[in-house]
Amino acid sequence: EAQVTQNPRYLITVTGKKLTVTCSQNMNHEYMSWYRQDPGLGLRQIYYSMNVEVTDKGDVPEGYKVSRKEKRNFPLILESPSPNQTSLYFCASSLMGGASKGYTFGSGTRLTVV
Amino acid sequence: AQSVTQLDSQVPVFEEAPVELRCNYSSSVSVYLFWYVQYPNQGLQLLLKYLSGSTLVKGINGFEAEFNKSQTSFHLRKPSVHISDTAEYFCAVTLSGTASKLTFGTGTRLQVTL
Predict the structure, then answer these.
(1) Given 3-state DSSP classes, what are the helix, strand and coil percentages for chain A, each rounded to the nearest 5?
(2) Cβ distance of A45 and B49 shorter than 8 Å
(3) pLDDT single digits (tens) A25-64
């Protein structure tokens, strides 16, 4: 089944403790992206990647890092999480030149930083 | 840069009544437009998309949307809603031709009651 898999689904952590949210897709998509969803703000893009070793900032990149060492994986790294990063996170993927096909989203990761 | 405005944060409606969720976009170039639905505690599911051609687009679950270039709108409609349509709906835009940033509106919560 074609899908984007995020792990974990739920995570509670303490301020300053490094964490990684994994994202993997099995559709051979070039384009991958991370979004955060907050009430009243919709979804905002954090980082995106157009292919292996090609990443760039979205609208709200502060406090986040990403890497794209393999085509299928696009982990989101919070080196020193803070309470304002408490949010619902979504990973998405798409073919390059395939915006017409839409984006496939993961099921989300609900992160709480205390 | 493109942007999306969803004017209504919440829309209450009775079951079997018609509904329209409004979406306006801003872009200086051609765009693709999407509507996504998010059911409680779930990820995002594509409802429908406009790429080109006919301005009336039909999607899943009986929803349809009309692209109006002169008014830069892409309103979502359903002639008769069901309790199961209770969800959050997001309008989104991306530049046509290539995968790029998907910009979301802030969402409209559709609440269907008996």
Answers:
(1) 5, 50, 45
(2) no
(3) 999 999 999 999 999 899 999 999 989 999 999 999 999 9
